[in-house]
Amino acid sequence: MFNDRKFARHAILLTFLGLFLLFFYVGLQNDHLNILTPFLQATYGWNDLAITNPVTAAAIVAIALYLVTGAAYVKYGVKRVLVPSILVLALGCLGIAIAGENYAIYAVSVFIVRALVVPLLLGAFLLCANWFIKYRGRVLGVVTAGGPLFSVIGIATMNWLANDVGLGLNVYAAIAAILLVLAIVTALGIKDTPEESGLNPDGLDHRPLSEEHETGEPITVRQLLSETRAWQLIVSYGIMQFVIVAMMAYMAVRYIGLSTPENVPNLFVSDALVWLSVGAASGIPMSYVIGWIDDKMGSIKASLVLNVLFFFAVVPLAVMPVGGNIVLMVIWAFGVACMTGGVPTMHPCITSYVYGRKHFMEANKWIMTIQAIPMAFALAFMGAFNQAGQLTYAYYALMGLLVVSFVTILTMRDIPDANAADRDYASAT
């Protein structure tokens, strides 16, 4: 893929770093609550809203954090913001580990964890946007396999360590140690742009052709929010991100509610986790496939494919019978893997597609900030249905939203690729 060996070394390290950033972004945003919530309920008797309310509050703060972090990346560069963010995130994980039944320490720590995953996502996005144009879909397809990997490895490992091995909350201390290593690798091994290493995007021997006539004029927020294409991005991917948060945070609660006495200890642990690992394993290559579609046919068609795959995750949970159904769980698990890997792949791809490499973060910081507003209330949305004993209807509501996002993406089909001169749609392999 890369002819320049120096570029290849940078690209490989950056890809592995991005993989781990997405692993912890997906895992520590909401997925870990599927282990933490049942553990705290059983150990301390806390209800699900008490456990997740600090996460909801942090998600609201994250609305501003998307904008602040994006602006900081533009002004100071990736490493100067990402490294301290990872270190504070590690402190939040350590706080969960030592909190015990002290709710105040737990609430502050889980708040920090939920908020500080934002720089992980934006940092991975910006690095990939800076370093790749022609190969952006396929590289992001590998990087964002970190999301499904957490479903395969992370949740099962956390469940094993917290319950079977008996580490309890100390599993978060181990996560903090891994994050410390990640911060060191980022500080010592990563450059913000290929130009800082005397290279060009994709390892080419010339600067991007699509950037030769750029004026360098920044995109103002007034200009951005007056454009139809910006709102098409905000609505379509805002809905998909809302659905991910809602689905991932409440999948354990859903399966526990469908459990029978024969499901020991409950349906989520006895059956669903097994199929989640199987489905996520098959979903990992799907992240690459979606990225390949982006490189081959463009971001609009790839986004439509991704939107359809969301229904594989949502529909089975809407119609799942009490006691579970293996076929539905397999379909659900595959859909979960595709959506958690697919959105992180396609969100930066389609933003780069519309706005180009140079203006990616200028647009992305505002787009993701606005998208974060409804996303902040995804847990409360699911919690309200759950408290009313009507969680099934939440999944039908999510399906309705996905229809809206599909139609919105269809309206974008005439938008051209801003970096089309440097893409290779005809011969992408």
Question: Could you write a compact summary of the structure shown?
Answer:
Helix content is 76%, strand content 0%. It is mainly alpha-helical and 429 residues long.
Helix-strand blueprint:
Blueprint: H1 5-31, H2 33-44, H3 48-76, H4 78-99, H5 103-116, H6 118-131, H7 136-143, H8 146-164, H9 171-189, H10 221-225, H11 228-257, H12 267-297, H13 299-319, H14 326-355, H15 360-375, H16 378-387, H17 391-410
Would you kindly provide a written description of the structure presented here, covering whatever features stand out?
This protein has helices at 5-31, 33-44, 48-76, 78-99, 103-116, 118-131, 136-143, 146-164, 171-189, 221-225, 228-257, 267-297, 299-319, 326-355, 360-375, 378-387, 391-410. The protein is globular, with a radius of gyration of 21 Å. Helix 7 (136-143) packs across helix 14. The protein is mainly alpha-helical and 429 residues long. The protein has a single domain, classed as MFS general substrate transporter like domains (Growth Hormone, Chain: A, Up-down Bundle). The mean pLDDT is 89. Helix content is 76%, strand content 0%. 55% of the residues are buried.
Report strand %: under 5%
Count of separate structural domains: 1
Structural class: mainly alpha
Q: Segments where pLDDT lies below 50 for 5+ residues?
A: none
List keywords for this structure.
Growth Hormone, Chain: A, mainly alpha, 429 residues
